[in-house]
Hints:
By secondary structure, the protein is α+β, with helices and mostly antiparallel strands. The protein folds into 4 domains: 8-83, Phosphorylase Kinase, domain 1, CATH 3.30.200; 88-276, Transferase(Phosphotransferase), domain 1 (Orthogonal Bundle), CATH 1.10.510.10; 283-453, no CATH class; 464-598, no CATH class. Helices cover 24% and strands 25% of the residues. The chain has 12 helices and 27 strands. A hairpin with a 5-residue loop joins strand 8 (143-145) and strand 9 (151-153). Helix 3 packs antiparallel against helix 5 (194-210) and helix 5 runs antiparallel to helix 7 (244-250).
Amino acid sequence: MTRDEGELLGGRYRLLRALPGGAMGEVWLAQDERLARRVVVKRTDAPDEGRILARMHHPHVVALHEVLAEPGPEAEEFWLIMEHLPLTSLAAVLAGTSEGRLPEEEGAPAWRRAAEIGLQLARALQAVHARGIVHGDLKPGNVLVGEDWFVKLGDFGISGAGGDPEETLEDGDRTPCTPAYAAPEVQRGARPSRAADVFSLGATLFALTEGRSVYGPLTAPPHELVARARVGRVAAPGRAGPLAPVLARLLDPEDPAARPDAAQARRLLEGVLRSRRRRWAPVAAAAAGAAALAVTGGLLWLPGVGGGRAAGAGEETEAPGGAAGREADPCALAATAELRAFGDTLLDTDYGNFDRCDVILTTPRGEEVDVMVDLNSAPAPEPASPTERLGGVRLVSEPPGDEECTRLLLLPDTTWITVRAAHWDGGSPGLCAVADRAAEHAAGVVDEAGGVPARRAAFPEGSLAAENACALLPVSVLAEVVPGTGADDTDVGFGDWSCEWYSTVTETEVELVFDRADPITAEDGVPARFSGFDAAVGAGADGPGTCVALLEYRSYPSEDGGTGHEKLALTVSGPGEGEAETEERCAAARELMAVAAAGLPRA
């Protein structure tokens, strides 16, 4: 029985207008007259879909309010009452483009946008699979996307939205599937699985970048796509750029067990976005810059017990935990040339806070290792591992982790340097050998120069590097928002570029850090504005129970000729990981970021 506009379901939901999609063609926009809100109602012959959605509470999965049973002409009809969002399907977005794929945008190439979308979907799948649920029909038609590219996964019943590319086929006893996106084993008759969901994720990202199915043109008849799928004929991407190796792993046509699971897919996509968001400087230019420092003997910060001094300036300065340490250049310690023994190296001078510098090492096997040098304020930590002497510097070798290896260099004035080699895609052999080489080089530079060499040039006018993070949040304001914070519980970071406060009453921590990274995206949280600056507030962005407010302060020309972005990152964390605790921390983050933003200088 087809419903009519204006009908009332369950004495509560007024049908407003029919919406496209749904295997039964019964999807409506409706008004919840009890709560005065818009909802989407969908008739389903699979009440199990309602039970599946009822178990899911995830930001990237469409929320189900209730399952409604209504009398029908022959049997009960089941209606899913779902959240209504001002979103459209990803399939509709692609259909509205000239080439049927994501458009190239300034600052956001199609492969990057696809990776951002894929990361959100991988997180959704990870949550879905953790509850023993298989989606079974991941495709652009079942992905809702907003203007800011925030996506939600929906339609957990195996259904089609019409049209050849997303037509759902059922051949006798064979599992229904969408030929353009279903895994080969499913199109041969196997039941959907977690591995098949991962393949469909890869097939969706392939379509976003290529404008076609992994099995051929989206305009091809479905039976042709099925024929190619059954023999495992999967095309290689031509426009996916750095995303291509990830797609190759997701789209393994022969061995479902060889595909990464959803959690591994998430980490792979995070790796693509993390590594490629850095703006790399040419190796030759970076090495020449470091050599120039050694030749000219530029301004040096010289560590010593009780403080350092600037060579050539002839005057004592305070220890570098405050503004006096800002001339120290972490990139002068980067082992760009020395690490070439392990592979190709690129220097990244514009990533993270102003007290760090990174060398991106690509091994002969194609693994990408981030080798970070980070300057830290006194006092140095008490070493938990044995130390050894490298000239006047003490070296602490921390036990290696699964994905990183860290070395600490303790300077005479108790300032310290962190050297870390990290590979975020599941670990890499030889990380500690890389970390050792990088740490030995940094210690040699410090020992020979008598300290950390100065920067080649001053920070540009208008940079956050001239600001004091602690001063942006007065303790009096903090104490009102987070009771129990005080000046005695303030931890000042290197160069005054970060500040951390701890509440002795609520055990809540507040951290404000200056950052350099890509512009704010939908992945960072709910869009916001503070004192005219673009921002985002992300619940759980730094782990369960946390809330992170990000503010984009300014953009600037980076050393590689691209565009860099300076940001403020304010994190509120504490005990308790429930929704109420997280929302309370987000309220505090919004209030505190509003204060910090108001104190920022204007260009």
